[in-house]
Amino acid sequence: MNAEQHDVGVSQVAAAIAEPARTRMLCALMDGHARTSTELASIADVSASTASAHLAKLKELALVRLHVQGRHRYYSLADKRVAEALEALMVIGQNAAPAFTSRTPDRLQFARTCYDHMAGTLAVRLHDRLLEAGWLLDVEGQGYRLSETGDPLFAGLGIDVQALAAQRRRFACPCLDWSMRRPHLGGALGAALLQVAIKRKWVVQDLDSRALGVTAAGQREMVARFGISPETEVESTGAFASRLAPTVDLR
Fold first, then answer.
1. Which of 53, 61, 95, 139 has the highest CB neighbour number within 10 Å of its CB?
2. Which domains does the chain have, with CATH numbers?
3. Cα–Cα dist 7/34, whole Å
4. Which residue windows are transmembrane per the record (predicted)?
5. pLDDT score at 147
6. Does the reported pTM lie above 0.70?
7. pLDDT for 49-83, tens place per residue?
8. What would the DSSP string read from start to end of 73-120?
9. 222 DSSP assignment
């Protein structure tokens, strides 16, 4: 791709994301789940036909991917790079409008998904603790690596560190958090840690938003394993279940 084609491509993608309804659709898909056009139309507050047109444009520009299962059609973000770009734009957007007062619910700011890893205040606090305790070591320009004490910490969680290191994606890296404007843990290690937290029910995932609720077990484990105390209301599993919306997890 030459320079002129590159400029055109950036302009087209920027224009597609700039449309408010499309922005809401893309942000709704940042939790890694796939949703139907009907669900996305409701989220974007547009008609079904308008939603279909928006999704066709996003698909044309490789921002979303269509999944067909029988008679059902679902849309997800094309890949994690789209989520990372959106997260970065959120940070820039806040800097561009310093007088803006965020209306983002406290619960979403405290803990949420950033595509396939954890974001929010809790994730930033955990990221800082991992570095402070020496479990993660900052390799300038190359992200993070585990220390001799960090290796057994993650192995004790059932995470196969060697398998993660063999993946084509970065092993562990800082990901700038839009609400905190400081890094949380991204990369393969960040994704694996979120999956452990979900599997062990340390957090419960809200399927109609990116929010994560910390359970009583999660609070205990955060203190025991990492030495941090989540300062938020403990999520009730029953209350969480009542908010579930039909989605397909394609991570």
1. 61
2. 3-78 (1.10.10.10), 98-249 (no CATH)
3. 30
4. none
5. 94
6. no
7. 999 999 999 999 999 989 887 777 889 888 878 88
8. EEEEESSHHHHHHHHHHHHHHHHH-TTPPP---HHHHHSEEETTEEES
9. I
